[in-house]
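Reviewer has doubts. Consider these tokens.
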Amino acid sequence: MAIATIDPREAAHFGAMAADWWDPTGSSAMLHKLNPVRLRYIREAADWHWHTDEHGFRPLAGKRALDVGCGAGLLAEPLARLGAAVTALDAAEENIAVARLHAEGQGLTIDYRTTPVEQLDAGEFDLITSMEVVEHVADPAAFVAALARRLSPGGLLIMSTPNRTPLSRLAMITVGESLGGIPRGTHDWDRFLKPDELGKLLTDAGLEVTDVTGLSFDPRKGLILSPSKAINYLLTARHPQD
């Protein structure tokens, strides 16, 4: 059996936030602000890759999606609404319990599990998402390799993670965690990955990186997709067709 790359301390940290995960003013407030930007990026990547109607309501119909590090389902639920058959994993049992209850209340069927992705036996997926997760795992290379193994030929893997720069330390830790916008202790700057470092892990795992887009803060608009990757970035990789 594959060894899980879950860091128990990280799982406990995020599990402690489960109760108010869906509160847009609670400890996960920053994730609520991030989610619309992430969804826009995912939707655009999916439309481009599968040539779907950009105005359609269910562009992921017929697709299997896996959300790894799903928390209480903030991204998994929109993926289900976009038509995907969604499996979602999180290391914290508290998060999965909240996620199941919330999805039931929304009338959504999502296969929530606490199974580590390295030990998941559920076939391959057309779309895999893993947002703000790789910087929290014990072994990023093994984690990325596990994601790649579960991606179907021609499938898409979409990730987001903070960049390891002086600006990200200032914005996310010195300011973000000190002022309470991000729960204290959420990040370890030394574990952040630069785009070329994450790109190499993906290439080594047999995937092809097709896009890297920055995530920045605009005083007028809030969080936006941006050419600047100095703080955070989103990345798309594809599994080459057989």
